[in-house]
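Recall the central idea of this unit: under ordinary conditions, the amino acid sequence of a chain determines the structure it adopts. In this exercise we apply that idea directly, starting from the sequence alone.
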Amino acid sequence: MVVEDNQPVRAGQLLVTLDDRDYRTAVDGAQSQLDKDRAQVGDDWNTGLSASWELDLFGRVRRAVEGADAQTEEAIEARRGVALDALAELAGDYMTLRGAQAREEITRRNLDTATHALALVENQYENGVGNTLDVSRAKARRESIAALLPDLQTTEQQSINAIGLLLAQPPHALERELAPVKDLPLLPPRVPVGLPSDLLRRRPDICEAEARLHQATAETGVAVASFYPDISLIGNAGTEGLQFGNLFELASRSFSVGPSIDIPIFEGGRLRGMLKLRKALQQEAAIDYQKTVLQAWRDVDNAMTAYGNTQRRRDALADAVQHERDALNAATQRYEQGSSSFLDVDTAQGILLNDEAHLVQADMALRDELVALYKALGGGWSIAG
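Accordingly, the structure predicted from this sequence is:
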């Protein structure tokens, strides 16, 4: 390498020239290094299989699987509880619909009676026997009865739409099936409640709380097992070669087998805190389970008490309605014979209409209480029991 003196040297720049020998030496060195780099570049073919098996000596995995199964059972029971609520609501809406139709039928029957009474009063008035007071009272009674029909028809239509909503149907979609008047469903002759153990198996909320307690207990077991080492057996096998043809040769094969031990040495504080938390959650789940069982027994007892008392009330109202019908017939005959005033007829008809409405409401309440008992018992009862 020669630096010529006649070339100017400027600030920050030095012109260097290479003679032919130095140039060829530099080129040859670079080519040699490039060939070495190319020789080191190539393909790497490999296959392998790795497997591990944890020795569950202290039950950590077993309790974790148990907790996962309990969590799945909890979700299933929660879904069953939602379905039970939907069925109870559907039954209640259906009872409301048939009850409104029954009240409408009674109202129309009383409207016919009031119309007949008005015609009788007007006839008496035209014959000079009656007076304007009786005519006005008869018209008022008829109109007051007719005023009850719009509210009943509104309740009927709202009940049909409510049932359609629960069945994922648009408004008026079920009107053809539900609009025809039908009687209220018949009541069973008896309701076999069964044993408390049957209640524990049927109630979704009790089963859900039990599964939640089971899960909390299993997670407590996982927290206890976390204090102990985790021992696993690990195995690896495979082949590796720079060429695909050498991949399955004996020299290309490799394998390793051995245990793996994970000891929680410096995690004592975290593990103790986790165990304390799991025990607290387990205690909370146990209290919630006890509360759910007591709530279930209370619901059943309240539903049975209400059902029995409503039955007695309904029977008394049925007797009262029968007596009031006899009283109305007697008052009408006495008025036709001229031995009493229309006030007796109007009073008897008002009392009859009121008692008949109460009787229908008692029939509806009786069926509502039966639906509540059905729900309290976890979705029904066994007739054979």
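Residues 189 and 198 are 21 Å apart (CA to CA).
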